[in-house]
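Students often ask why inverse folding is considered easier than folding. One informal answer: many sequences map to the same fold, so there is more than one right answer. In these notes we will look at a single instance of the problem. The structure comes first.
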């Protein structure tokens, strides 16, 4: 399998990722990823130096407001600030 993630088939990303692949996965540079791990935005690596894809997903979900209860279940509606046409202020 090619080392370049963009050449991989959809869904082929491994569950445990290197630092570089984890940074690519969340859409930032490895250096920025390091800073955000240090700041607690993203989870730390396991003792083997690999990052868990599901833990990264949960961190991204929390940043997006998709999972505020930590269960992985999106059971609460999210107010994205999007309103129906003619309903700019949220009123009828």
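Output (designed amino acids):
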């Amino acid at each position: 399998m090619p080392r370049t993630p963009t050449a991989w088939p959809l869904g082929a990303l491994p569950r445990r990722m290197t630092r570089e692949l984890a940074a690519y996965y969340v859409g930032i540079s490895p250096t920025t990823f390091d800073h955000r791990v240090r700041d607690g935005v993203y989870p730390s690596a396991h003792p083997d130096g690999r990052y868990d894809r599901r833990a990264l997903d949960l961190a991204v979900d929390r940043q997006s407001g998709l999972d505020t209860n930590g269960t992985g279940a999106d059971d609460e509606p999210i107010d994205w600030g999007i309103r129906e046409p003619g309903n700019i202020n949220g009123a009828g």
